[in-house]
Amino acid sequence: GGHWVGVLDLFGFENLRPDAPNGLEQLLINHANEQLQDYYDECVEQGMNEYALEGLDTTGLDLELPNRRKISAAVRAVGLVLDLLGDQNNARNGTDAAFLQAV
User: Transmembrane ranges (predicted)?
Assistant: First the structure.
């Protein structure tokens, strides 16, 4: 096992101005990033569990996932907010105020 570095080029970052306020576009980009990180962490965790079941020694691997629960919670929270936004969008008389109240 040699060392390696993976690079993933995500959409959207090149179009964001540093002085722009955080808006829906930034929320969606962050949410996509958090989902990707959550998926990656889940795959690593499953792999480590498989290694343990097979009795493989993983003591030399440094694959701790200290933010796993936080990232998963953030993904769920943003998903809930987007669901509420969708509800207001689909409501006949949906309003910004009703969305804020629901959040």
Answer: none
CA distance 25 to 65: 27
Q: How far apart are CA 39 and CA 16, in angstroms?
A: 25
- Give the C-alpha separation, 82 to 86, whole Å: 6
Indicate the DSSP class of residue 21.
P
**For residues 63-75, average pLDDT:** 77
Q: What is the pTM of this model?
A: 0.63
Strands (DSSP E) contained in 1-103 are none
Q: How many residues does the chain have?
A: 103
